[in-house]
Amino acid sequence: MTPKPNPASSGKPAAKSVIAIVGPTATGKTAMAVEVAQWLNTEIVSADSQVLYRELTIGTAKPTEEEKQGIPHHMIDVAAPDESFSAAAYQAQASAHLETLWKADKVPVVAGGTGFYLKALLQADFIPDVPPNDAFRAAMADWAEQQTDPEALHQLLREKDPERAAALHPNDRVRIIRALEIIEATGQPVPKRSENKGLNVQWFGLTYMDRDLLRQRIDQRIDAMMAQGWLEEVEGLVQRYGPQAHALGVAHGYPELVQVVLGQRSLEDALEQIRINIHQYARRQMTWFRRNPQVQWLFCDQMTGEQLRNFVKTRITESVCG
Q1: Same domain membership, residue 77 and residue 147
Q2: Residues 158/165, Cβ–Cβ less than 8 Å
Q3: Per-residue model confidence (pLDDT) at position 322
Q4: What is d(CA 271, CA 257) in angstroms, rounded to the nearest whole number?
Q5: Residue 302 confidence (pLDDT)
Q6: How far is CA 159 from CA 38, 49, 144, 154, 189, in A?
Q7: CB 3.0 to 4.6 Å from 154: which of 29, 33, 170, 294, for a disulfide?
Q8: What's the pTM value of the predicted model, to 2 decimals?
Q9: Per-residue pLDDT tens for 269-279?
Q10: Residue numbers of the chain with a pLDDT score lower than 50
Q11: What is the structure's pLDDT at 320?
Q12: If we measure between CA atoms, which residue out of 145, 204, 154, 203 comes closest to residue 174?
């Protein structure tokens, strides 16, 4: 039974309350966030580094208008594919949306799987807004090319900032160099300082007890994306922005499909690598979120959809409005 009364009609919520719905990819975070936002009569702030980019739609599993169910979503389609969008820019813009919702006496729902963004937005991190240093980036890229170890850049970051390195795939050269760039500019890892934000955050994590089921879900999603025209989407982006466009180098699966479009790789090989990379990404997401003891884990293969929703609503009622 859904708990009563509905928080949306039971007076003002606790000051600066937030509902955070997190977890690895392909676990139904969007659907849960929409359900909760409808129930609370509020809006959703995305914490996904992929859906930030306009025109990257299929491969980022960007929610459709039908899936949004009329709920306003923020921090989606805020950057062009050839634009570099920093974590500091995300923190600033997303924080502004939270403030707007709080002023309207609404409880924001923050949903996504980018742990670095979630931590910066809801916990305590200060991200220095370091401008791009093209000379440093070029020097790092040249240095990496000269190394015999293909993971030399990642190893360098592990030595300087092990926490940030743990969140990045060793092949994610763009973000690894960006992290090193910030260290070069500030002399400190990201974040360089922390301030307690004093937010009342209810953390809910969606995952699967059976890891094989999660891998199957990921593979099914990839197959569905291809059927929806993911490769054709990438072809169009390459034509409009060129193969070196920033988003095509950082969004999961896009670099491999760019290689297919350019005739540098077979589609079969690219899809196999995409599956491997996203499986590994899901494991890194879980490693990141498990560091947060406040996350209340819900196992999608152990509870029905109704049980999941009712659990979340009960806990929200108790914490936010109780």
Answers
A1: no
A2: yes
A3: 53
A4: 8
A5: 95
A6: 45, 24, 15, 9, 10
A7: 170
A8: 0.83
A9: 999 999 999 99
A10: 1-5, 8-10
A11: 66
A12: 154
Encoded tokens for 144: 């990496």
User: What pLDDT was estimated at residue 8?
Assistant: 46
Which of 148, 171, 186 is the endpoint of a domain?
A: 186
Spatial separation of the C-alpha atoms in residues 173 and 255, rounded to whole Å: 11
pLDDT digit string (tens) for 179-198? 899 899 888 886 655 556 88
- Tokens in use for 43? 């809006």
Torsion on CA atoms 26, 64, 112, 82, rounded to nearest 10 = 110
Distance separating alpha carbons of residues 322 and 315, to the nearest angstrom: 9
For 100, the domain range is 7-127+191-320
Residue 151 maps to a domain: yes
Indicate which CATH number applies to the domain containing 167: 1.10.20.140
